[in-house]
User: Fold these one by one.
Assistant:
Number 1:
Amino acid sequence: MRFILGFIGAVFAGVLLISLITGLATYFSNPPAPLAAEEFHLQPRHLALASDGPFGKFDNQQLQRGFQVYSEVCSACHSLSLVSFRDLRHIGYSEAEVKKIASDWKTQVPSINPDTGEPATRKALPSDTFPSPFPNEVAARAANNNALPPDLSLITKARHGGAAYVYSLLTGYRDANTYRDEHGKPLPADAKPGANLHFNPWFANLNIAMPPPLTSDGQVTYADGTKPTVDQMAKDIAAFLVWTGEPNLASRRAAGFAVVIFLLIATILGYLAYHQIWDEAKRAVRPTGPLKPENQAKSRRAKAKAGVAG
Amino acid sequence: MSFSWAKPYEPKHPLMRWIDERLPLPRIVYGAVGGGYPVPRNLNYWWNFGFTAALFLAIQIVTGIVLAMHYTASTEGAFNSVNQLIMRDVNAGWLLRYAHMNGASFFFIAVYIHIFRGLYYGSYKAPRELVWMLGLVIYLLMMATAFMGYVLPWGQMSYWGAQVITGFFSAFPLVGEPIRIWLLGGYAPDQAALTRFFSLHYLLPFVIAAVVILHIWALHIPGSGNPTGVDVKDERDTLPFHPFYTAKDGWFVGLLLLIYAIVTYFAPNYLGHPDNYIPANPLATPAEIVPEWYFWPFYAILRSFTFDFILEAKLWGVLAMFSSILLLFFLPWIDKSPVRSGSYRPVFKRFFWLLVIDVIVLGWAGGGAPTPFRNAVGQISAAYYFLHFLVILPLVSAFETPLPLPRSISESVLHGEAAEAAPIGAKPRPGSAATAVVE
């Protein structure tokens, strides 16, 4: 049987060797041309947020600014279907403010006319989630050159790089004709954006259907007086979208510290107990001279309890 | 009951006596994980991962049962039931979900260390072959359960993972495609597949628990192995499981739970893939389809076959991937060396560590987008995997000269008395404490 198994192993290894050789042969005889999308694609830029790190907490001021950017800019196309208006209470809005934000929301939520039963819309309530401005996917695509604006609730968890990616993307629009990468290399013609696409080296295939949403400083007037530069707005919306993706971040970390401290204490106590139990057993077998008188009785008791032969 | 000196159960409380006389469950528990199970006294910390694995199975079952109370097994509702209801609205739902998500990873970490422990110390050898094989059955069931669990949130990676893994079956000629359609209940993963995966994902952990009982039962016939691989000779070689190993397992489990808590509370998505936070879309294939990290080595083996040699490359990949686990069932008969422990097998030991590195490299090869370099590394390490088990191991076990074994466990723990511990006639190594004694 060992010969059969050895033969099977040799066959698998042999076929792998053939795969390796043919793969290498193809690679060297016909080296794959580097794809522009791989060559020019950039890793997200560094972004430091108050919520970073194990001790990080949300900065409610910043989240409110981010929400302002969302409601004035992003919400024209993007929904937040997992987030309710009432959740805004957690970033510092009062109950009355939440009610007002919901009822003033520019897109109404689908409903039924109570008199006729016809489809209708009504003002949003705090318990509603942020509605999509489009009634359905077809309408959304029709309004956006066949591209579908994704729901933003989980976007920082659904992209490599998270918030840094959002920030990089929003500030990353460049002119494809004059763009040079870090080696001064211009974009090849076939990688340039087609009709209704926009060049952005932080987007995976370099050309994104979303037009630059943050175009000029002062696009949003911040209630708290922060200067609304494009960079600031991009940071704020990124911070806000971290919150929409992980609203329980703060309580999760608080619980985490309690659990870690509890486990540390329990583990140390467990370790001490383990040593106490085992030291007796080790002494019981190891002929390292007689025990001190006070330990002899202890050892006898432990042995009797544990059932160890003396 | 494995040894004649195992303490019989003596009820301390009249209630326990009353129960024991009618249903000897306390007796069984006492003999299995209590003072009535004598365990070799020299177990090192690599022996702690079986208990840890059992604990993570329990964590998975408890968190999973509560999650199932809030989960909706429908293609329309699954994603939101996880990401909206459970993560936002259910009290501590985020904790349940993250604990379950990362609990799966830690279950696999514990089981992988447990398996490699078994490989190093020859735990698969007589008389523990069935313990080993039942363990492999548990591992296979775990893989099936983990795969189906990953499908349940119905994200992009769930959907496309299901597509790829059920696609394995279509590699087989003629019968493959009908089997795939039958398993999925359709031509692609859809409602029928999601519902049955949910049903099986709920069922299989209990099957695992049942096989765990068989695994422990089979273990308790010969008793636990030990780092020397030498059989237990008398009472001096053992300690009762309770309190000695319950204490050792107890604090060590605390340490592992600490790591688990740090990941769960502070980096819960570290081991996951961002694409699974995008709802499943059958019309958009993700840029890269990668399984969870614990499947990466097998994914690398699958992808490594790129040449149609007589059979289709895909079929080679699927056959090799299944074989890579199935061959482990034959291990007790592949490795015929009478010495169990790798510590006394100098050649085996080197190849063992090479295998560990090989499997880690395979994991790296399977965990990223396929580049020519990654593919080549994957192919070499996959070839080594098969050669290791099916060619090198039989040869090593035939030609290797093992080091002298200690006479007994209790003598091996008495450090500094190697002369007495070495078999009669064995030459102590120069410079060791034993040399002085002999001279």
Number 2:
Amino acid sequence: MTNRRDVLRGLGATATALLAAACKPFDNAGLQGGWFRENVLHLGEDLNQAVQRFFLHPTSLAREFTEADISPKFKANGSTNPDSPEYQAMVANNFADWKLKVGGLVENPMEFSLADLRALPSREQITRHDCVEGWSCIGKWKGVQLATILNMVKLKPETRYILFTCADELEKTLDGTGRYYETHGLEDAYHPQTILAYDMNGETLTVPHGAPLRLRTERTLGYKMAKYIMSIDAIDDFSKISRGRGGFWEDRGYDWYAGI
Amino acid sequence: MTATAEMEKGDRPLPGGRVLVRRHSLLVRVTHWINVVCILFLLMSGLQIFNATPALYIGHFSDFDHPIASFGAKNTPDGPAGETMLFGIHFNTTGFLGLSVDNNQWQVRAFPSWATIPSYQDLATGRRWHFFFAWLFAINGAIYLIANLWNRHIWRDMVPSLADLRALPRTFVEHVKLHFDHVREYNPLQKLAYLGILVVLVVIVVAGMTMSPGLDTAFPWLVELFHGRQTARTVHFVAATLIVLFVIVHVAMVLVSGVWNNLRSMITGRYAIRAESRTEVSHD
């Protein structure tokens, strides 16, 4: 026969479990891949994209600051030192053998060394970097406009996105889907402030910030600005790349359109 | 003024000299309850988002060495402790802020798992919830504002008159004594609270929009308004805090000043007042 203490203990355990469940009723509803998240919650970010696309002109520029506004500390986030032997070898010889490969749906696939990129017309901009985590830093960036490169390789008309493949594996996986990559639509790719930056705050881009080359897309959050760029490809579809959502963080539940 | 109650269209006399009046329009009632749901989800998903960078800054960028507030944990001789910093003053907030228990385990997180959606750390999912309810909240709020500015409800019933402001100290004393007069109009404290929360709700939306690099590019005046994105983020947080304080006081007042009458007024729209309400006000 159960005594009173056992009954009370059972009731206590049940109450604790119920309370824990009551506090977390929305965990399952928001799970990635779930119906509610992908079809209902997603409406919010769909509207963000539609409204921002409506109000943003292809040439509307993000605010540019002065030298005096540059942050004393610029946080390096995500990968800060890709640990692959290939990348470390590139660092060891100062990226002398590094070549940016530009291909995919283009008429003239090309390769660019750092010297080639530096010889092209450059753009310098002091802009605010907004991380999805909520912090901001201001830095000065110098690089070649992506549009310059895209015009040199001549995109085929079926191109819809530009794919950036990076040297860093931010998550170790068996199938390679932990490698960082990003995709952008053509509006952002051709935006005047979209540059492939090789200098930061007047100095050569350092490893924590994405050496030898990182992307700057000043109207988006930081995760769209791929670091450690190895190759750029014109593509018409990203559903077959990695986990199919258009970027490393997108594959992990963040929105492809990162304007907010 | 006449000593008898002024009856209005739709008033229904009740036994005991009371009158059932139309308190809230259908639109006010519907938008109010949608708002309740939105604010609950926005607050909890907002705390999830906040936990990704549990510090507040002033200006365009985050001066990491000089936050005006931060929530974290540190090791002490007595073990780990949750520590909250406000304007350089440190508070031990173990168990709630900075360090709290989930699944019988201590966790280093600014706001505890019971206060966030999802309960575990997941910024991407917090953002999904937040933007969905942000749109619902903004559309719902826009309908409320446009309709009630148009039909003059806000001007007529919420903007306090000079007489209201003069009656403020007396109303305050009556509230402290828990003496509540049930009349047709909002009392001066109600007017100020409801008007104030409307302003806070507008500010929180604009401050939220200012955190968007895309919207800052489309509308550069947004960031000028707050003198920086990080200031806007701080304003967003402070506004959320004010909303929580409002809700606590609001629910407390609903409970102590006639809970069934209050609840009925926000469900059916009908509110019971004493019949000579108008005269009382005009004698002031």
Number 3:
Amino acid sequence: MGLTGDQFKGLLMSGLSQGAMYGLIALGYSMVYGVLGFINFAHGEVFMVGAMTGFIASEKFNANGMWESNFALCLVLIVFLAVFVSTITAVLMERVAYRPLRNSPRLIPLITSIGISFFIQNAVMGLFGPATKSYPRLPEWLSKQRSILTFEIAGTKILVLLVACISMVVLWYLVERTKTGKAMRAVAEDKEIAALMGINVNRIIVTTFAVGGAMAGVAGILWGLLFRSVTHMTGFLPGIKAFTAAVVGGIGNLGGAMAGGIALGSAESVAPLVILEPLGVPGVSQLKDAVAFTVLVIVLLFKPTGLFGERLAAEDRA
Amino acid sequence: MNTSTSLLKPIQTVGLEWRRVGKWGSLCGLAMVLTSLIGMPVGLDGRILIEGRLSLGYLSLIWLPLVFGYVVPKRIELEGVESTTYGLQDLLAGLCTGLVAALGPIVLIFGINNFNLRKPLINWSPKLFDLLTHGRGIGTGVIGWLVVCGLLGFAGGAIHLISGRMRRIFISVIFGLLFISILESAITDLSEGFGLESLTDRLYAKRGGLTGGSSLVLAAILGSLSFLLKGRVKRVTSRYKDMDGVQRQSVSLALIAVIVALSIVLPIFLGTIMNELLANVGLFLLLALGLNIVVGLAGILDLGYVAFFAVGGYTTAVLTSPESPWFAPELHFGIVLIIVVVIAGMTGLVIGAPVIRMRGDYLAIVTLGFGEIIRLLFLSDWLKPYFGGAQGITNVPPVNLGLAVVKGTDPRSVFYLVLVFCLLAIYVSWRLQGSRLGRAWMAIREDEQVAEAMGINTVNTKLMAFVVGAVLASFSGAILAAKVGSVFPNSFMILVSIIILVVVIVGGMGNIAGVLVGSFVLIGILGGPRQPGLLQEFQSFKLLIYGALLVFMMLKRPEGLVPSARRSQELHQEEFLQDAWLGDEEENEESPSAQGLLAANVVEDEEDNSL
């Protein structure tokens, strides 16, 4: 075993922080599937748009020196901007493409969302160029290694976990404690009855997309801080992995989506080195994505309802 | 119109709907700005359509006001409700939409002039400014856009006013010119093969594009042709449809024979580039025919279809190439094909057996996962000793058929090889469609539970579709390996699956003719994932267009360009039922009118209910 305890802890930490990000994206998949019963394949692109917005804004802040002098304010501003743009992207998507297809067979909106995903990817490439874009350097006090309970962890990762926790709590409050959240759950349960109860179904569906988009925007900024690079293809793999996370946690189940994300993130960062390396497989870090896909295939094959149980309307269960 | 609905008041439109004009006009303006910033006008400006008048770059902008000008005054025609006739206010609406839309490029002109947003937006450049102002300064640019967009919007509105015959003539002139200028390289190539260079020299300018004079002449020819042929085409097709079984079959056979003969003879006269293009179209056609069986007939959305393409390619490479790193038997292509069929079929079974029971959308994502896993495995260091990792396997030998050698440097031979397989695939799909198995697939596509209740073993039947699709894809992969002479993991990206899906959907799911049209139009003109099409300038925009096309087709015409009759009935079930219901009402009150089979069934149902 070439793996020391410290290394393992490090891997676990980066897995956790990445997983928290997957979890945030997964919330969008889970909520949309819960309410409309189809896979919004383009949700990964919403995340990418958030990361791209963050890059453009931080570049501008960096140019006038604000990034270094007042980093905290900048961070709040770019999160706000990214959330704004991502939300608008998600809502527009719903309005233009998904609303006219509300009553069509399940595969039709899925195919549409693949088209949207392609369109957004390539539109972003056309607008901002195909080159990889790097976020400006983070201030020293944030990115330096800290030691918490014998775990060596970079400050950025703590920030990611913290922000993910905060977003999760806000979302939990929104869904479980507010009237809008109640309406969302009602619409997910049964659209027609919800409409009979005086709920504006269209508005709730738009809200669902908006909330999912906002979460993806936050995740986009976290991605930018963690990896400091973004391209037009950034949304594809995290998108599919986040969908995996949503399935692992049980689709429609928000706590499950977050847990699934963290489980998947840890699995894909730890499994190659812990399981594959001892088997004598060379170049294991290349197989990180293959591990994630294998998890997806295995979960869908053996436990398609997810680890924590899916929550879907009867018509979507089929 | 029928009298039974005269109680309903005609829809009153009070003058112009300004809100609608404003909304769609500004949307059009935004679309123009977005297109400009994505870089289409500048990127496509090199391709000239009509010399000195119109380039593809400008075309990518100015089609928008024309279409929006047409859409804005369009009224939804409800059956039995009299809508107001189109009139002067519609021309005005079109004009105003165009004028509002012109604000988009105008704002962009001023923006580029006064601000520098080059940093994030790479196309915010003086080049775009020059293109938008036509290189003649701001004033001319502003007035030019106002005039052009206004006129085009006006023309769009005017489409509603002119008679159907005029409309047909205009449409055939515009699309005919567009096609002749897009197909420039193909036509030039073909005429060189026939020794008719003088004709094309006169037709096209030196730097590409139609000359002004020849486009006028062509427009006149096309216009008079469509005037003379009015109704004839329809008469011929309706006569074809009225024929009885035997006669119709013999006519179809004659048609097919002509097409096959043409596709055998034409490549002889074509140059290398065109044959290369045809070979690529053929390769993707083969893939699309396979996917058509899986998606179009059986209704299984397989997003990892590229996996079988990869399996075919890699099997061929390993078995024929002397440089295969692990096992290099250097077999003959003919023997390899048999092994490829076996391996692809087995892969299809192995991947298909577990996933086939899943519900449709999960199946799509899982197959996508499988497709990506297979590529990642070929790419990984782990399997590098067997498949060469990122370097792939090179030096795949050409196919030696005894009489002729099929190699990548001679695309004509590749095309003939592909043609044989395509004909085979078309024959197989055609025979399968009508067979018991094909009908079982369609039944499953329409309603799986009902199909199961009818005694169809759904799991096995779907698995068969998966395997047949896998085998066809693997043929394509095998030919690709022999054609390119090497295989790399990156030739088998998920992208390939998606592009084939677009081809099948745009052409028409479940219809062989549709798939043919889809692959010729999309792969031939826009190009495949790596292969350029006739419009090479589109290289960096084709995925954007594929994405937009997919969304557009799903929203407006899910049955595709050449729909299969049954499939479109499924997709528009509600409309069909509604038509049938309306037909029923009419029948009760007025003269009985001829309705479709479906209608007749529903009429019976309705009567049962009323009793």
